[in-house]
Amino acid sequence: MAQQLRIATRNSGFIDPENIRDYIGVGGYEGLAKCLTEMTPEKVIEVVTISGLRGRGGGGFPTGVKWSFARRYDSDQKYIVCNADEGDPGAFMDRAVLEGDPHSVVEAMAIAGYAIGATIGTVYIRAEYPLAIQRLLKAIEDARAIGFLGKDLFGSGFDFDIELKYGAGAFVCGEETALIHSMEGKRGEPTVKPPFPAQSGYWGKPTVVNNVETFANIPAIIVKGAEWFNTIGTEKSKGTKVFALAGKIRNTGLIEVPMGTTLREVIYDIGGGIVGGKAFKAVQTGGPSGGALTYKDLDVAIDYDSLIQRGSMMGSGGMIVMDEDDCMVSIAKFFLDFTMDETCGKCTPCRIGSKRLYEILEKTTLGKATMEDMDTLKSLSNAIKDTALCGLGQTMPNPVLSTMRVFEDEYRAHVIDHKCPAGVCRSLLQFTIDYDKCVGCTMCARACPADAISGNKKEPHVIDQTKCIKCGACFEKCRFDAVLKQ
Amino acid sequence: MLVSEREQLRENIEQWVAQYGSDRSALIPVLQEVQRKYHHISEYVMQVVADTLNIHPVEVYGVVSFYSFIGLRPKGRFIIRLCRTISCAMQGNNRIARQLENDLGIHFGETTPDGNFTLEWANCLGMCDRGPAMLVNDRIFTQVTPESVHEILDECRKAFGAHTFQGEETCPL
Ligand SMILES: Cc1cc2nc3c(=O)[nH]c(=O)nc-3n(C[C@H](O)[C@H](O)[C@H](O)COP(=O)(O)O)c2cc1C
Ligand code: SF4
Ligand code: SF4
Ligand code: FES
Questions:
Q1: Final residue of a domain: which of B66, B95, B120?
Q2: Smallest Cα–Cα separation from A248: which of A217, A231, A219, A273?
Q3: Within this chain, do residues A86 and A161 fall inside the same structural domain, yes or no?
Q4: Could you please report the per-residue DSSP string of B95-127?
Q5: Which of A392, A386, A327 is CA-nearest to residue A362?
Q6: Helix/strand/coil (H/E/C) assignment for every residue in A57-126
Q7: Chain B interface residues facing chain A, Cβ-Cβ under 8 Å?
Q8: Does A187 contact B63 at a Cβ distance shorter than 8 Å?
Q9: What phi, psi does A118 have (nearest 5°)?
Q10: Which domain holds residue A79?
Q11: Using the beta-carbon criterion (under 8 Å), do B62 and A335 form an inter-chain contact?
Q12: Are residues B48 and B87 in the same domain?
């Protein structure tokens, strides 16, 4: 039986997030004190590097290495930025950490500041998270009052303070260069990397951008040591990962497990399996940038590299679970709808490409697509991957490519047989009444808004296909399972 | 708009600029303040903000048109944003959408004629395990049902009676 192991969420739910004393009571700010009084900045970076911690915001870049880059560049000012713009569909771990344990992020940012030589930190947080904002503001204020932020922390001569910047409803601002532009008061459009922010970020100065969950790991690593952290996880992915379970899974919510836990353990042991005893079909990891994993992948040990090998990615840790009633073409369409809505519009492959992909998927769900369209879907996807500027565009075709590969039969059924096997795509459905099962209760006829059902009481009913608008009301009403949806 | 109202608006903006610093990075925080208080960004506001920050009005327009929480079109005092993203869709957000449209008598993207409610779609609100989720100004509601839509709207309407909203003013523009 798989066990949860809580590092990033070690305090969430156990302490009062609005009381700094509670946080101090569980060893809070000891990590910062240790860094400032016993360790050189180089030593701090060394510990983080040896721990093997990789960025939890999606990219998985080694955190210690990022810090050492920023440390190396000479500059009169450097910045620490916490990326709290979490917007991946199905992801809410950063919100939970900020609401449940805001001080861990405050402490970690100060540690990072000390490590690279920055005195200013900014949390870029989306406006959709009012409670997280409130808790974070309180945490910063309390830390200041007690002298854990501000001037001359722990008598070390090191100054550090944190301010908040609020997002304004643009998903792309989670991308680090876009985020920095937004902080500078510009449109949140990404720019080409390099230069990476660690070299030239906020106002052209060396800037470390890290994710909320990445930061939440730091104090524990400093206090317990790199070796401890290093023993947890897989060879190339150390520590734990917080996953957000949503969709058709029995126990939805947040979990934190060691890297290397299998998908089966996550979905069945911890997640409790599929709702209503239905069959597991797929799980989307990595949100709109990721792909679908199926029963074939259930025994894969989850880490950054194994998921990429399987055609998906870790992303920020959202897991949307799908069962037999979900149509994978519609799921892919859903993600494209999201990216089409959130593309910043700067580059053509992403702006126009997302729209074209969406249109073809839409056509498929209507049963009007051809096999040539399927080829176009693939080649266009690959073209977008190769030519889009930022991560949003480059990864946007992944849900399409991944579902096309894994659920090829389902696409073919839509195109060739004009059927939706999961019974989701309305235009492809046909409602009929099973002559043998129907007892003639008339429930369906009364529910039908199109007057499409006829038949005498206590005699089998029939549906006039020319009148039927496929609303599904009869299917839902019938208590004898006599209405068939095909 | 009356001259005195314009002056008031200008004063407000100058105050916010003083608070957030007069460099370019103050632009979005200042616009967010204006949006909160006046529910939209008018051309006049863009001009004043541009003058105070010493940038071209087109730059301000570029920013206003980019972010979905800041906009030119006047919005209602209550902005209802229903999550349209996948997990909430799996949990039946369409029923909530229909209920909202029926109760308010407007479609998504519209504002009630009395200027009280604006109905919008939002992408994932980070409440995916407790959908359908919806944001009303700064308050988040989860596991919304058609019945609770009634209650939430009623609560908003009651707030009109009290009339004074925190930091809010009717837009003079
Ligand atoms: C479209 C897009 C959206 C992103 N959104 C987020 C986000 O919401 N939060 C986050 O931490 N990183 C996000 N990232 C990744 C960031 O660009 C960056 O890699 C990350 O914040 C670095 O922190 P880490 O090394 O701690 O993971 C996003 C990237 C892309 C391309
Ligand atoms: S509800 Fe079912 S049993 Fe009753 S009339 Fe309709 S199809 Fe027949
Ligand atoms: S699907 Fe709707 S329109 Fe068609 S027969 Fe059933 S109730 Fe009538
Ligand atoms: S999908 Fe609606 S809150 Fe995440």
A1: B66
A2: A273
A3: yes
A4: HHHHHHHHHHT--TT-B-TTS-EEEEEES--S-
A5: A327
A6: CCCCCEHHHHHHHHHHCCCCCCEEEEEECCCCCCCCHHHHHHHHCHHHHHHHHHHHHHHHCCCEEEEEEC
A7: 23-29, 32, 62-63, 66-70, 85-87, 89-90, 122-131, 135, 138-140
A8: yes
A9: -110, 145
A10: 20-230
A11: no
A12: no
CB A105 within 8 A of CB A215: yes
A339 and A222 inside one domain: no
Q: Which domain holds residue B17?
A: 3-66
For ligand 3, is residue A469 a contact (CB within 6 Å)? yes
Which stretch of DSSP H or E encloses residue A161? strand A158-166
pLDDT by residue for chain A (486 residues), tens only, comes to 568 999 999 999 999 999 999 999 999 999 999 999 999 999 999 999 999 999 999 889 999 999 999 999 999 999 999 999 999 999 999 999 999 999 999 999 999 999 999 999 999 999 999 999 999 999 999 999 999 999 999 999 999 999 999 999 999 999 999 999 999 999 999 999 899 999 999 999 999 999 999 999 999 999 999 999 999 999 999 999 999 999 999 999 999 999 999 999 999 999 999 999 899 999 999 999 999 999 999 999 999 999 999 989 999 999 999 999 999 999 999 999 999 999 999 999 999 999 999 999 999 999 999 999 999 999 999 999 999 999 999 999 999 999 999 999 999 999 999 999 998 998 899 999 999 999 999 999 999 999 999 999 999 999 999 999 998 899 999 999 999 988
- CB-CB: which of A92, A130, A335 is closest to B128? A92
Phi, psi of A428 (to 5 degrees): -100, 0
Same domain, A273 and A180: no
Q: Are residues B112 and B87 in the same domain?
A: yes
Distance, CA of A406 to CA of B63 (rounded, Å): 41
End-to-end CA distance of chain A: 39
A235 belongs to a structural domain = no
A422 belongs to a structural domain: no
Give the distance from residue A223's alpha carbon to the nearest chain B alpha carbon, in angstroms.
Answer: 31
Question: Rounded to the nearest whole angstrom, what is the distance from the C-alpha of residue A485 to the centroid of ligand 3?
Answer: 11
pLDDT tens string A62-91: 999 999 999 999 999 999 999 999 999 999
| CATH label of the domain that carries residue A275 | 3.10.20.600
Residue A186 at interface with chain B, using a CB cutoff of 8 Å: yes
State the pTM of this model.
Answer: 0.92
- Count the domains in chain B: 2
Q: Is residue B133 part of a domain?
A: yes
Tell me if B173 is assigned to some domain: no
Compute the distance between CA of residue A179 and CA of residue A158 in angstroms, rounded to an integer: 27
Residue-level length of chain A: 486
Clarify whether residues A351 and A445 are in a common domain: no
Which atom in ligand 4 lies closest to the alpha carbon of residue B125? 3
Contacts 24+ apart (CB under 8 A), A151-158: A153/A32, A153/A36, A153/A110, A154/A32, A154/A33, A154/A36, A154/A37, A155/A37, A156/A36, A156/A37, A158/A36, A158/A113, A158/A114, A158/A119
